[in-house]
Request: fold
Amino acid sequence: MSTSHPLPRLSVNVDHVATLRNARGGTEPCPVQAARLCVEAGAQGITVHLREDRRHIRDRDVERIAAEVPTRLNLEMAATEEMVRIAERLRPPACCLVPEKRAELTTEGGLDVVGAGPFLAEAVRRLAAAGIEVSLFVEPDALQIARAAELGAQAIELHTGTYADAPEDRKAVQLERLKAGSEAARAAGLICHAGHGLSWRNLAPVSALPGIAEFSIGHALVARAIERGLPAAVLELLEIIARSRNPDNSQF
Reply:
């Protein structure tokens, strides 16, 4: 496959490092130190989801990563007044607006951008005015993607969870949906990211799709790190991304 396009970035989500810390109520493991290790290993960004119930990442974690870890910070958050104010204060390089339900274990699907109320448009406008790259987490649906562009978002993140959870005989169908979503994003003038449920087992086919600029991967990487260590887990995913675009790539 051609390497005329730059390789996608890997943004590591360290939420579940905080989940493990919070299980005992102490200070270890530290998500800030985990973020440092991931960046030192080659990750090009860090993602954190500051949930309304603060079940894993906390305000101080976001503040410290923004101040202490030299990388592209992507702050995932719900489109609420509280979260928009936090982002306006911290001004991370990027924010991804996601749906959020208190009962869910993890984000269950993309935003309904088409049916969203007026505050989503206000949130996009305010974040962009603060100099933040605004992304909307959506299904690979042409109408949702077109509406994201109409609202003024600069990027979308395609929900890859349906692909990740699909049985093997349905993976190709879901991969085609993601390909169509990335093409719709490009046609709408949007940067295209992707994430949710991706791991070393299923990343390569998605990474081979043209037009995706960044992957956000968290739970699977943290789980893999228990076996291999954080730096090795990061390097493994970077190698998969590189080889998916050029099978002869040996930079790792």
Remarks:
- The chain has one domain: 9-245.
- Residues 9-245 form a domain with the TIM Barrel fold (CATH 3.20.20.70).
- Strands lie at 9-13, 45-49, 72-77, 94-97, 133-138, 155-159, 191-195, 212-217.
